[in-house]
Amino acid sequence: MTEDSSQSQPMYCYAHPQRETLLRCNRCERPMCQSCAVLTPTGYRCKECVRGQQKIFDTTRWWDYPLGVITAGGLSYVGSLIAGIFGFFTILVAPVAGMIIAEAVRFVVHKRRSQALTLAAAAATLIGAIISPLYQLVLSLVFISSGQGLTMLLGMLWPAVYAVLVTSTVFYRLKGIRL
After folding, report:
1. What is the rounded CA–CA span in Å between residue 84 and residue 89?
2. How many CA atoms lie within 13 A of 120 on its CB side?
């Protein structure tokens, strides 16, 4: 019984020549280790192949940026007003609101994408989410001498939590596969 020559010689990662591996990129067939492998919907690929594919998929048009920003900012502002009502449960509501905002942005821009659009939508989400807490901050500074300002400052906690959670959710939902 003869052994196949490919099985008798060990393969080494293209980026880490000291690491032996059995894994290959499903596009370019280069051997790669676990730290160099990126799981895609079609299997494992090397980082270079994934980067090359991502450049192809930057499909936004100029009008997608204002549409995405207006959609993300407006929905985030409405969500921040609602988040003040939920208190502690904002921790559960904010990621759901982030998913809704991200899907609304995708719908408005017809699923076109780019890294700049992701950043613009995330920034608009953050700005929309912090308008309400900033307004509360100004009011609390005005009323700080009357003793009500500290209570108003504590009321900013959940809208601030909302801002952080919704922004990170929108960013990661629109980001897709990145390295």
Report:
1. 10
2. 19
